[in-house]
Specification:
binds NADP nicotinamide-adenine-dinucleotide phosphate, 12 helices, 8-stranded mixed β-sheet, Rossmann fold
């Protein structure tokens, strides 16, 4: 199979990103896969594992720390100088949460909003000129963004506007899970606004919810052992409440489907939970909030 197109997957060294990369590598449809990771040692380990498991060598690692705007700019500049097949896919998968205490990115922005939204916002905007059509962009959000679902009721996303979210100084303003869920709501405003801006350009943008996947590091690395135990032990209880849970291979594989599936050609501006197209929260379709977020984000990342 000729390797004739490149896809970048952020946060591909573990969890859903890793499984997504594995599915793409196994599908053997001519993709060169870039694992965009903040820790290149972990990235290299993942690359070796992927090659061993899929026998596909068309995989490389590039350093990308989404919590540093300079790192995002460096990543894009190195990518632009590299000799790789043309870029046809971008999967914004990386994500993190800090449940207690406020932490900040290298640029001084609240870390969940700064990493999950602003880092990807800058990355995507800088890469737009490199995307060759037809192209697909996938934005990994989370069901926690929707206050009309059980996860959302528990997480209580609260969109206060980009500048207030980015510069939050008082821990009491929002809890850690609220900040995470709100950053995932920002992912949706971003995906839908980007889709509107790219209409007619043969670049699709879809958003994705992997459902609740307790086996990945996002849940396993929660520092408070009681909270971690609670989340693991509650999986059966969550199910009774109607929370959909999944495994990294199923939910990571379904991210890959949004890149690979011929039936999804031209499908854009949609939201999928694993394989099923769904409606996201009512607020996520608010075009005024989305365009304000876009303008403020341009300013916050220094693109205006
Ligand atoms: N697991 C769930 O239940 C669930 C539910 C809904 C949505 N999601 C979303 O699914 C996506 C993948 O998460 P996961 O569950 O697979 O968790 P995961 O295993 O922790 O993977 C997250 C990935 O993001 C990377 N990352 C974190 N901060 C980064 C930064 N500053 N720069 C670059 N990469 C960074 C991590 O790198 P390191 O290994 O270096 O930390 C890791 O590779 C996230 O967007 C998450 O919000 C997950």
């Amino acid at each position: 199979m000729t390797i004739n197109k490149t896809v970048i997957i952020t946060g591909a060294n573990s969890g859903l990103g890793f499984e997504c990369a594995k599915t793409i590598a196994k599908a053997n449809q001519g993709w060169h896969i870039i694992l965009a990771c903040r820790n290149t040692n972990k990235g290299e380990e993942a690359r070796q594992k992927l090659i061993a498991e899929t026998l596909n060598q068309a995989i490389s690692v590039m350093e990308l720390d989404l919590a540093s705007l300079q790192s995002v700019r460096d990543f894009v500049s190195i990518f632009q100088k590299s000799i790789l097949p043309p870029l046809h896919g971008l999967i914004n998968n990386a994500g993190m949460q800090v449940l207690s205490g406020l932490e900040y990115t290298k640029d001084g922005y609240e870390i969940a909003f700064g990493t999950n939204h602003l880092g990807h916002f800058l990355l995507t905007n800088l890469l737009l000129e490199n995307l060759q059509t037809p192209a697909r962009i996938v934005v990994v959000s989370s069901g926690t963004h929707d206050p009309d679902t059980i996860e959302g009721k528990f997480n209580k996303p609260l969109f206060l506007g980009a500048k207030q979210l980015a510069t939050m100084a008082n821990e009491k303003e929002m809890t850690g899970i609220q900040r995470y869920a709100t950053s995932k709501l920002a992912n949706l405003f971003f995906a839908y606004e980007l889709d509107r801006k790219l209409k007619g350009k043969n670049i699709t943008v879809n958003a994705y919810d992997p459902a609740y996947v307790p086996a990945t590091n996002l849940v396993q690395s929660i520092k408070n052992p009681f909270a971690r135990w609670m989340l693991r032990a509650s999986t059966g209880f969550f199910k009774l409440l109607g929370v959909v849970s999944s495994t990294p291979d199923v939910s990571g594989g379904a991210i890959a489907r949004l890149l690979l599936d011929e039936k999804l050609e031209g499908v854009s501006g949609k939201y999928f939970q694993i394989l099923e197209e769904k409606q996201s929260s009512k607020q996520s379709y608010d075009t005024k909030i989305a365009s304000d977020l876009w303008e403020d984000s341009l300013e916050l990342v220094g693109l205006n």
